[in-house]
């Protein structure tokens, strides 16, 4: 007896040409059929979804939901229960949260040293509305260490102000807070 009898990603149908690519939870979810009693889990469906950047899995046993079709329907409801704003929040979180290797304390701000000359500079970088990479460099020899760092941080914060406002709006229920006024 096999551990998994079928695996499928939701939705299974192909998108017809010209149909918009919807930002749905089903695109980040999968269903898995489990039928192996040796596994110690009752037969049923397991739904896996991405929430806040983490994989969340939940098992839906046939016994509890009244059969294979009912447990699958419940698993599909669970998988589809991810609001579309969660995907937007996740994208904003990736842009705004510092990574583990971030030494400046702010994502998109780094200090570099040119190897041949030894010239140090701070760089602020971000993507513009068209997806192009933008960067601004601030030389330590021209501005001094602290001023160059501050200028890079200010440039980054100014560039991503809309992302910050949108992130705050999503967290407080859709009310945008503009801190520049």
From TrEMBL:
Region (Disordered): 1-25
Top-level taxon: Bacteria
Domain AP2/ERF: 122-159
Keywords recorded for this protein, A-Z: DNA-binding, Transcription, Transcription regulation
MF GO annotations: DNA binding; DNA-binding transcription factor activity
Ranges in coiled-coil conformation: none
Protein name (record): Pathogenesis-related transcriptional factor and ERF protein
Phylogenetic lineage: Bacteria, Pseudomonadati, Pseudomonadota, Alphaproteobacteria, Hyphomicrobiales
